[in-house]
Give the backbone structure.
Amino acid sequence: MSALRAPLPVFPVAACLLFAAPPAWAHGPPPGIGGFMFGLQTPFILIEQVLATLALGLLLGAQPHGVLKFAGLAYLCALLLALGTLEFIRYPVRLIIPVLSAGALIGLWIAIARPVPRGLAVMIAASLGIMIGLAYVPPPNHWLQIIPMTAGAYGCLVLLLTAAGGVAALLHAPRKSLWPAVGLRVLGSWLAAVALFMLALWARG
């Protein structure tokens, strides 16, 4: 019993040190990482952006090439426009609920495996690009530092969209086995479930 009781005083000391620590800024660049490289990791701080972008990529990758081309271009242009607008207003818009709701709906659409009309796909992609771009939170630095950070965030989201679209295209390709297509629907269901769970947590405060 003495061996078990010995470490116990460590826990109150650790708790006091924890509560005495100053508050950390979640979006500040870690030492030695800044500019473009910090921008590359910024979307992972705002997990709803990653979730919605992955869902959109999976949805578009399973569509015909024409839908993928126009909707993907709409997302990229809308995202770039919103990020550029944010450079002037310097104030992110709180769009967690709309972004998560869009991610949940897109995930459900993937799960039911229904084709998306080109016009609707373009509208969904552009709307999501605008919401994600306006919700981006750059650190309050000089604009010469904000621009490479924003470029890094844009590059990260483009890579996520492209990777998810490529995975969906591989899984949706005609095959003798139905399991790849089932796997795509499972991925959509999982993304929808995560988005709905996050919405429930947000609603509870």
The two ends are 42 Å apart (CA to CA). The chain has a mean pLDDT of 77.
